[in-house]
Each structure stands twice: as structure tokens, then as C-alpha cells.
Design brief:
mainly alpha, MetI-like fold, 2 domains, 25 helices, 73% helix
């Protein structure tokens, strides 16, 4: 006699419920993905060349000026970048989010688009613009004024602060503008009714409510400046100083010093974890500011005669990370003289022909980059989908543990992960160095949190009623995820895939530590070409990277719009 449960099971096509084994497998995979490189870093940091336990590596790190100075330089650099990014992004976010300035939507889109630009490519573009002798802006300055000294010097501490701030200010902008959008108008209206002038309302009401987001965004800018490798390697080394990331890189040059490199990487990891914890605490307390029900939508502040000057200021600031660097790269790609003012007589396609017809590394680098980007995005979005589903639908200890493992890589700087993977996979039993597999593991680890955050937010916006109905009819968790949940979250899955793809294409910190002569990706090829000074070839490859990336972003936005899902958001 057939039971009702049997009938339901046959209707659902239910087989054995594999959710438990899959949960265990995902947890073990994530634990190994994160724990293995970090474990090797700790093992090398506390051992000598013979493997004996020691603290000598940390003592040398503090006593040797060539090792301690990069630490202090990195701290000073991060503080200056965070301050400059906050001072720039705060008024920009306020004008875009809370005023009637023209072009606000365009400014938002352009600021978000700046995330697509790899910081190391932006640094090379600013080399073309502001190198003291050959930079376009300095050449124009000399031609116009007859001055002997350059107007800008990108090869300096101040130049490095400026360039990194151009590509960290958008993080502050996004966090702060989102917070300003959520501030209800009631409190500002009450202050206005009580007679407070507009400037007093901004300073006394709006700013205190947005302060937690501003502090959190500033912490992100500090963290980005501290962990970046590409921009300091391109601008600081020619200027004669190191940051901690570039020093770690040089410690792997001949003769390699892996114990010292591991000792230098471990404090960077601990500081990153502390800053992320501080950011979470700051953002976690933002709810204290507004008590009560849902407030009215914020009304834009009328700028009057200042509307167009504010618009010009915003787009002038956007020229620093976007318009000027992009024009410099395009000019360098099609000019015989990459640096210097534009001259139609110098137009040429020689750099394009060299890159795509003569340069032997181009084909392999493009193939490696997009093979890794496609495979990492596909595997990462699938893994993030499963983990986000478990984390969103299970409030028990296994669910929280899996969520922690998925978010843990966000605390691992790329150069630190590169050190750990190098130490882990250059010896038995599994040797992956020199293969694309080690780069795949690095990119998957680094980019997984972004896709996980995107999908976790999508799951929280999806009511579990349909999933419960599927489970009642006898389907297992994985079958429900495949047949019911995943199709409803198509937009979120595509957005997560897009985030991983973009992050993989622009990743340099780990790639430069782990790539070999046969596994180079475009970011490493650009880094190598910069050392040889071939700006024309760099510009061609950089423009091609940006075009492909923007095409993928546009296609993903179209797909997510058609699927009715959330668009990719920077994290």
C-alpha cells in the first residue's frame, strides 16, 4: 500500500538527500583552502632555515632598518591615503546623495565604474600623465610656463598617496552614499522647523548619523592602501622606498628568504583582521542613530546657484581615477611617443601590431587570464550559492561555521595569500607551483567573499515558502536549491559570477607571487612590461582588458536586469 509520503516523494522525483555530505565537503574544502596557506605562513614565520622553532625572524624584522622602514612607511602611507580618500569622498557623496546637483545618477555610475580599473593600471596611467620628465601634464606645464621644475612628481611619497587615494576613495563613497540614502528626512526637517540653518543641520544631524559609515569607509581605504602591491611596486620602488608588500615580494627574489617573508606577512594578516573587525563593529552600531518606524525619504538639498559649480567639481574629481587615466592609456596605445602631449603626426598602430602579432606572451596571457576568470567565476559562484543557501537557511552552528569560512578570505591580503600558497605548494605531497591550479586556488580564495555576500543578500530577500513546499513534497535540500531556489536567484548568481570574473582579471598581488614563465596572466605581463618601460604595449593590453571587462559588466547588467535580480555591487 502506497503511503502519502511515498506519493509525494515520487512526485518530487526525490532521491537520497545529499545535503549533509555536500555540507561537510564544502566545509572541509573551505577549511583547507584557507587553513593550509595560513598554516604554512605561521610555520615558516616561527622557524629557521633548518625548521627549528625560533623568534629570530620577528626580531630581525624589528631591528633591521631595511625591514622595519617599510613597516613605518606603510603605516604612514595608509593613514595619509585614508585621510585623503575620506576628505575627498565625503563631500562628493553628500552632493550626489543629498542635493539637487545635475548629473547625480551619472556620477554614481561613473564612481562605481572606477572599481573596474585595476589600481596598478591606474598607477601606470598616472606615470604617463605625471612622470617628472616625460609626463603629459608636466610637459604641458613646461610648454605653457617655461618652468624648469615639474608640476607633479608621481615618483614620490605624495604621488603614491595621491594615486592610491584615487582608487580607494570610491570605497568610501559607496559606503557613505548608501548611508546617506537611508537617513530619513524627519530629523533634518525637525531641526529646520526649530530654526537651524542648513549648515548647522548638515553638521549637527546629517554628519553624526553618517559618521559610522564614514569611519567604516575610511577603515576600508586604510586597509586597501596597506595591502596594495601593484601601485607601490610601480611608483615607490623607482622613488627609492618600499612598502611592506613590495618588501615581501623582494624577499622572494634571489636569494629567497621565505622565513623572513612569512614573518613580515603575519603582522599584515593580523592588522587586516583587526581592521575588518573594527569596521564590522562600527557598521554594526549604525542602527542606534534612528529610533522609531520607517522615516520619510530624504529630500534633496537645493543648491541654487551652486548646482552647476558643484556638478563641475564632482566631474573634475571623477577625472582623476577615470577620464585622465583612460585618455592617457588610449593616447599611449596609438602614439609613437606614449608620453608627452598629443600630436596627430605621431599616430600609429605599431603598438597594437606588436602586442597582437609579435609579442610572444600575448596569446598565452590572454588565454590564461580568461580561462582562469571563467573557471574561477563559475566554480566560485556555484560554491558561493551552496554556502549562501546553507548560511541563509540554517541558523545553527554548522551554518554559522560555513558562513565564517566563506568570509574568512576577506581578511587575507593577496600578497599574504601568495606567500602562503607558495610555501604550501612548492613541496610535496602536492606540488602545484608552475601550474594554473595554484592561481585558480588563489583567485577562488580571494574572490569568494564578494560572491558570497551578493548571494547571501539575495537569499535574505527570498521568502522560504516555496522551498518549504518542495521539502514537504519530498525533495532534498540540494534538489530544492537546483529546481526552485537557484532559478529564482538567477540575477544574484549572475551578479556574483560577474564580481568574481572582474576580480580575477584585475588581481596582481597573488598572481605576481605565484605565476611562472608558462602561467603568466595579463596583470603580471603588464607588471613585467612596466619594468622594461614599454608603455605603448602596456596601454594596448590595458585598454583591451578594460574593454573586455566593461563588456562583461554590461552583459551581466543586461542579464541581471532581464532576470529581475540585483546588479553587481562593489564590496
Amino acid at each position: 500500500m502506497t503511503t502519502v509520503a511515498d506519493s509525494f516523494a515520487r512526485r518530487a522525483g526525490a532521491g537520497p538527500d545529499l545535503s549533509g555530505p555536500v555540507l561537510v565537503a564544502a566545509a572541509l574544502f573551505l577549511a583547507g583552502l584557507i587553513g593550509l596557506p595560513i598554516g604554512w605562513i605561521a610555520a615558516f614565520a616561527f622557524s629557521d632555515r633548518d625548521g627549528a622553532p625560533t623568534l629570530a625572524n620577528f626580531i630581525r624584522l624589528l631591528e633591521d632598518p631595511t625591514l622595519s622602514e617599510p613597516l613605518t612607511t606603510t603605516l604612514a602611507l595608509s593613514c595619509c591615503v585614508a585621510a585623503l580618500a575620506a576628505l575627498t569622498a565625503a563631500p562628493l557623496a553628500w552632493m550626489v546623495a543629498r542635493t539637487d546637483m545635475p548629473g547625480r545618477r551619472v556620477a554614481r555610475v561613473l564612481m562605481t565604474a572606477s572599481f573596474v580599473t585595476p589600481p596598478f593600471l591606474g598607477a601606470i596611467a598616472w606615470e604617463i600623465l605625471a612622470a617628472p620628465n616625460s609626463g603629459i601634464l608636466n610637459r604641458l606645464w613646461r610648454d605653457l610656463t617655461g618652468a624648469a621644475d615639474p608640476l607633479f612628481d608621481v615618483y614620490s611619497f605624495g604621488g603614491l598617496v595621491f594615486v592610491i587615494a584615487c582608487y580607494t576613495a570610491p570605497y568610501v563613497f559607496v559606503v557613505l552614499s548608501n548611508a546617506l540614502d537611508r537617513i530619513p528626512a524627519d530629523l533634518e526637517d525637525a531641526a529646520g522647523i526649530l530654526g537651524a540653518p542648513r549648515w548647522r543641520i548638515v553638521l549637527g544631524v546629517t554628519l553624526p548619523l553618517a559618521l559610522p559609515a564614514l569611519l567604516a569607509g575610511t577603515a576600508v581605504a586604510f586597509l586597501q592602501a596597506m595591502t596594495l602591491f601593484g601601485s607601490p611596486a610601480i611608483l615607490a620602488i623607482p622613488a627609492g622606498f618600499h612598502t611592506i608588500t613590495t618588501k615581501i615580494y623582494t624577499l622572494f627574489q634571489f636569494p629567497p628568504k621565505p622565513q623572513i617573508a612569512a614573518a613580515a606577512a603575519l603582522p599584515l594578516l593580523l592588522v587586516t583582521i583587526a581592521l575588518l573587525w573594527l569596521q564590522a563593529r562600527i557598521l554594526g552600531r549604525r542602527g542606534y542613530a534612528v529610533i522609531g518606524g520607517k522615516g520619510s525619504a530624504p529630500r534633496p538639498v537645493r543648491l541654487g546657484a551652486w548646482r552647476w559649480p558643484a556638478c563641475l567639481l564632482v566631474f573634475a574629481l571623477l577625472a582623476l581615477p577615470l577620464f585622465l587615466p583612460y585618455m592617457a592609456l588610449l593616447k599611449a596605445a596609438i602614439s609613437r611617443l606614449p608620453a608627452g602631449p598629443f600630436d596627430p603626426a605621431n599616430l600609429t598602430l605599431a603598438h597594437v601590431a606588436f602586442v597582437f602579432l609579435e609579442f610572444s606572451q600575448t596569446r598565452d596571457a590572454f588565454a590564461n587570464t580568461f580561462l582562469l576568470a571563467l573557471s574561477t567565476a563559475s566554480a566560485g559562484s556555484l560554491l558561493a550559492l551552496v554556502v549562501a543557501y546553507v548560511a541563509a537557511r540554517r541558523a545553527d552552528l554548522p551554518g554559522r561555521a560555513l558562513e565564517f569560512l566563506a568570509m574568512a578570505p576577506i581578511a587575507i591580503p593577496g600578497v599574504v595569500l601568495g606567500v602562503g600558497l607558495f610555501l604550501a605548494y612548492t613541496r610535496g605531497p602536492v606540488v602545484l607551483y608552475g601550474t594554473l591550479w595554484i592561481l585558480f586556488l588563489a583567485f577562488l580564495t580571494i574572490e569568494l567573499p564578494a560572491a558570497f555576500q551578493q548571494l547571501r543578500a539575495a537569499f535574505r530577500g527570498l521568502h522560504p515558502e516555496l522551498e518549504e513546499a518542495s521539502r514537504i513534497l519530498g525533495a532534498g535540500r540540494l534538489q530544492t536549491l537546483r529546481r526552485i531556489t537557484a532559478p529564482l536567484l538567477k540575477g544574484g548568481v549572475i551578479a556574483g559570477w560577474c564580481l568574481i570574473f572582474i576580480g580575477t582579471v584585475r588581481e596582481l598581488s597573488a598572481a605576481v607571487m605565484l605565476s611562472s614563465s608558462t602561467t603568466k596572466v595579463l596583470s603580471v605581463v603588464i607588471f613585467d612590461l612596466n619594468e622594461s618601460g614599454n608603455l605603448g604595449a602596456i596601454a594596448v593590453i590595458g585598454v583591451a582588458m578594460l574593454l573586455v571587462t566593461f563588456a562583461v559588466v554590461g552583459f551581466a547588467n543586461w542579464l541581471t536586469g532581464a532576470a529581475g535580480g540585483a546588479r553587481p555591487q562593489p564590496t
